[in-house]
Amino acid sequence: MLGLPLEMFVAASSFHYAVQLYNHNAFVGKSGWLDRVLVTPSNHRVHHAMHPVYLNKNFGGTFLIWDKLFGSYQAERDDIPLRYGVSGASPGYNPFWASNQGLLAWTRRPFGGAEGRAQRLPAAYIATGGILLFGMVIYYVDRVAGWDAVGKWSVFACLVAGTIAIGGMSDQRRWGWTGWLALTLAMPALCAGLFGIRDGWALCLLALMLVHGLAGLRLREAAWAN
To answer: What are the annotated GO cellular component locations (predicted)?
Structure first.
């Protein structure tokens, strides 16, 4: 909605995800003096650990100054084993539920995760759908400044709906698959037909989304035949 330059978005995203990839690796041990100032793999492992000493610690993304200032810093200890996860009920694999676990607990709504559900949709299908959706997000950020209000909000709503559908598929929910199928069939008509978006990048992404949705139709019989 802000019309950021694509170069700025890609550069910032690339740096951010490169740092996150490094911080989430299990191959790097402790990093000496860097562990005292930066969020290193060692410090971030603490953030994801379940031991009571480690819970609610190391919230920072790059520097440790805020954790040290507010008393939430905890160094990794050799005498405490690392076991990753969250305390309490698991919200499943849906990133929406996982991100709003506290709100759901406050409203006393069930999480409705994927526990006990058959793996009906292949992980590769869900992952490629997420990649295609992210491609549309990049396109949106690059081109949104030149669109009218209806186009901006319509495509934005589709991207939000796609994110929710991907989350539903991650939890092996039929509504997630149905929503994703409807979106992949509707977006090409919406973008190319109604809004006249016909540049090469958009048409390529929309065609791939359409193929992805049609491939999902072939999964229907195997996935929810019973």
So the answer is: endomembrane system; membrane
